[in-house]
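Section 3.1 - Work completed
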Amino acid sequence: MTPLRIAVIGYGKLGAIHTRLLVESDQFDLVGVVDPLSANRSLATETHGVNGYEYVDEILDLIDCAVVATPTVFHHDVCSILLAADKHVLVEKPITATVPEAQSLVALAAFHRVKLQVGHVVRFDPHFQTAQNLINEPRLIECTRASGYTFRSMDVGVTLDLMIHDLDLVLALVDSPVKSLQATGCAVIGPHEDIAHARLTFENGSMANLTASRTSHTQVRSLQATGQFGHVSIDFMNNEFINVVGVGDALSALDIDPVTASDTVKQDVTQRFFTDLLPQQSVPITPCNAIEEEHRDFHRSITDDVSPIVCGTTGLRVLEVATRITETIKAGTTNEPVSARGPHFENAPSSAETAALYKSHVRGV
C-alpha cells in the first residue's frame, strides 16, 4: 500500500495533534506543515522533523490530500484552494464560519469529485461508537459539554466551538429534520456567547436539550438518550463503560394497577425493577484514539472512493442548525423567529425590536 501524501494546514493545538499522529501513521506520508507564523513552522520542524511552508500554494503539487486545522474564519479560503486543485480535504469542525461558505465547499468538492470530510471527531469516540448500536429512534436526548476558559477558538462562540460536537451526535441519532428550536445564551468574556442552551424539536416528535459552556468550574461531557429501547447514559470522561437500562420482557408482561396493587406485589416489583423489568448494566468500551480513527476513515474514503462517515453535506447540515441557534441567541427572543410572511405580517416588528421588547419585559419595565 502506497501512503497518501498529506499536509497539515495550521499548526495550533489541533494541528499539532494531527501532525503527531500523521507522522506515526503508515497510511499517510506527511509532506509538511503550512502555517503563516514562522514560530509555528519552526516548532513543527523541531518537534516532528517535517518541512514547514508559509503558503498553501507551495505544497499543492506535492500532496494528495490535506488536513485543515486553521481558525474557522480561514476554513473557506484554504479549503477552496485545495479542492480547486483536486485535493481531498479533512477540515476541522465547524466546516466553515457561515452556511453560504459551507454550501460553496460542498459544491466545489462535488464538482472536482474529491472527498470533503468534516472533523466532528466525537463520531469516532469509542463511547459513542458503542452507544450508537444501542440507541434506536430516541425520543429524548440530553447533552452537556462544559469546560473552563481556554482562550481557544475565540473567533466563534461556544455553539460553534463545543455544542456543535453534540449537535452532530444528535443529528446522527435522530433521522428527522429539525422542526423548531429554542435557544438562549450569554457572553462572559465575549465577544461571542460563552454559555448556550438549546432545545430542538424534530418533525417526528423527538426532542433534544443541549447545554454548552466554556466558563464552567467543572468539566462535563455527557449524553443521555431515552426511547422505547430504554435509556443509554454516556460519560465521555469514563473510559471504561457506558450505562444502559434496557426494557425487559417482564415489563411488557407486567399487568398491575400501581394504585391498587397490594404491598406484596409492590415489594416484588421494586425488588425486580432493575433486574427483570428495566435491567441495568455497564457496557464496556474499547478505548481508541478518535482522531486516529478519523484519519483511517479519511484514508478509506479516498482509496475506496466512498463517502466519509462525516461528509461535507453532513457538516453543512450541522452548521445550518448551529447557525439557527446562534441567530436566536443574538436576537434575544429565545424562540426561533417565525419565517412566515404575508400581508398580515407587513407591520411585524423587526428582530431587534422584538429583542428589545423581550428584554424590557424581563426587567419588569
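Second construct:
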Amino acid sequence: MIDPVECCRRLKLHGCTYFSGVPCSYFASLLQALDLDPGMRYVEAANEGSALATAAGVALAGGRPVVVLQNSGLGNLVNPLTSLSAVFDLPALLLVSWRGCPDEPADEPQHRIMGAATPRLLRLLQVPYWLAPPDTEKFNDVLEAAVQTMLRSQRPVALLFRRGTFSPVEPAGVPPAVGGFTRRDAVAVITRKLTDRDALVATTGMISRELFRQRDRPANFYMQGSMGHAGAIGLGLALKSPGRRVVVVDGDGAAIMHLGSLSVIGSTMPPNLVHIILDNAVYESTGGQRTSAARTDFSAVGRACGYRQAHQCSDAAALAAVLDGAAHSAGPTLIHVKITPDSGTKPARVATELLPREVKERFRKALREDIEA
C-alpha cells in the first residue's frame, strides 16, 4: 500500500501543494493526511468541474495544482477539461479513484458503466494516465513520470487508484461529535410526516440508505449516484404530477454540487415541492470530510432563489412543526435541517435488496396506481 503521508511529502517535493476536489472513500486516508499537513491547502469543491477550474486558477498563477476526484465525477470534469485546461495549456495532476474497475469485485450499480469506460474516456480526452501501484517506492517512480509529462505538455495528466491503494492514517485531533440531532433522528421525523400520496426522492449515499432502513415504500425513489441532482428530479416530478406532493430529501454536499438547481426551482415555483436539506457539514459516505456548508445558510439561499417558504431548524420538534406547516402552505418550500454527523451503524445499501430498475419500476407503479385509484 501507499503511505499517504509519504505521498503528500513526495507531492510537496514536486511543488504540488494546492489541492481541490470532491472526496471518494478510496482517498479517505490521503485527504486526512492532507488535512494534517500545514504545508498543503485543500479546497472542498462544489463539484469536479469547479475543482478543475480552481486548479486552472492556481496554474495561471504559476502553481502546480492537484485535483482529487472519483471517476464518476469525470462527467462533471469534461467541459472545463476540454474547453479550459486543454485550450489554454493549463497543467493539473488528476488523482482519480477507479470505482467499478472491471478487474475487481462488483462495485455499486452506478459505477459499472463509468468503471469500464474510464481508461477509454481518458484516452479520448487526450489525458495521459498511469495506474498507481499499491507500493510507495513504485508509486514514487510513477508520480515522477506523471509530473514530468504534465510539466512538458502543460496539460492535465491522471493517476488512477484502485480500491485499497492507500494505507490508513491514525486519527488525530478532536473526535467527531457524538449525539445531538442526527440524520437518523431527522429521517424518523420526515418518515412520520409522510402521507401515502407523497412521492419522495432521496439523494444518493447515507440519506437513501437511512430512508430505506426506516421506512421503505414503493413511492420512495432512492438515487444511486448522480450526486447533486435530487432537486432537479423532484422538480420534474412535481411539474408532471401537480396533484401530488413531492418531497426531496437532500444532503448539504449534494445540494452544493449543483446549487443552481435551487434557482431553477425558485423560478419555476412548483407549489407541491418540499425540498429538505439535511446538513451535517461533512461527506459522511466517504469518510467524514468537510463540505463547504459550514458558512452556507441554505434557507437564506432558498429565499433568495424564490422559494415561497424557507425555514431552518435543528431539532425534532422544530422539524415536525415546519413539516406540518408545509403540508398546508403552497411551495416550493425549502427546509434547512442542521444535524450532527451520525457515528452509529451505517445502514445497508439499497442495492443489497433492490436493483435500480426495481426501484424505478415500483416507483412508477405506485404513482400510476394512485392515479387510477
